[in-house]
Automatic annotation (TrEMBL):
Name under which the protein is recorded: Regulatory protein SdiA
Domain HTH luxR-type: 137-202
Keyword Cell membrane: no
Underlying gene: sdiA
Pfam family name, one: GerE
Length: 204
């Protein structure tokens, strides 16, 4: 039985009751999707103190693949980020990092917290499977054609259907079909939405 298909966000909240942070398909700038379910007072303190660059959890995530309890991270913590996290109730944590050597260079990661005890091995496997599944769900489609990408690039640049057809030397009907195919492959509602998703994926 594939546990990764069973665990959902409600299960994550049970396993990590103090909160979690999830960044999916993070490239050079922003993740395609970000979920921050950590305590608001900790988020505010973390942001105000600019802990991101010195956080040993984040440094481990970018340098490794797999899962590790926060207590097992052997990195300097000059700003005592983890010690301060404990004062906000994040006493025990788990970091999960997923990278599958995709050509876009995108990784996904999760950071999960409890107040009562360390994460168990079954819980670690469960959360690793969850982050891995979400990473793959956000993967760009591999069947989108160069012609469809070209049309999406022009939509992103603000060209209208007639202009795209003229630039490509094809009929408006052909452009419509390319955009229709691209929308279906990307799971988008409109051409603009498809272009935005293609940009997020690094396709255009």
């Amino acid at each position: 039985m594939d546990v990764s298909k069973q665990i959902g966000i409600d299960d994550v909240k049970v396993v990590a009751p103090v909160g979690h942070y999830l960044a999916l398909r993070l490239g050079f700038a922003f993740p395609m999707e970000e979920i921050n379910n950590l305590p608001p007072d900790w988020v505010e303190h973390y942001t105000t103190q600019r802990f991101m660059l010195s956080d040993p959890v984040i440094r481990w995530i970018y340098a490794n693949v797999g899962a590790v309890r926060w207590s097992d991270i052997d990195l300097e913590d000059h700003n005592r980020v983890l010690a301060q996290a404990r004062t906000f109730g994040l006493r025990f944590g788990l970091a999960v990092s997923v990278f599958d050597n995709n050509p876009e260079g995108q990784r996904s990661f999760g950071s999960f917290a409890r107040a009562d005890r360390e994460f168990t091995e079954p819980e670690i496997r469960l959360l690793t499977a969850y982050v891995t599944r979400r990473h793959h769900e956000k993967a760009p489609p591999r069947n989108i054609t160069n012609a469809e990408i070209e049309a999406l690039r022009m939509v992103k640049d603000g060209l209208r259907l007639k202009q795209i057809a003229h630039e490509l030397g094809v009929s408006e009907g052909a452009v419509k079909q390319r955009l229709k195919n691209a929308k279906k492959k990307l799971g988008a509602q409109t051409g603009a939405h498809a272009a935005a998703l293609a940009a997020d994926y690094g396709l255009i």
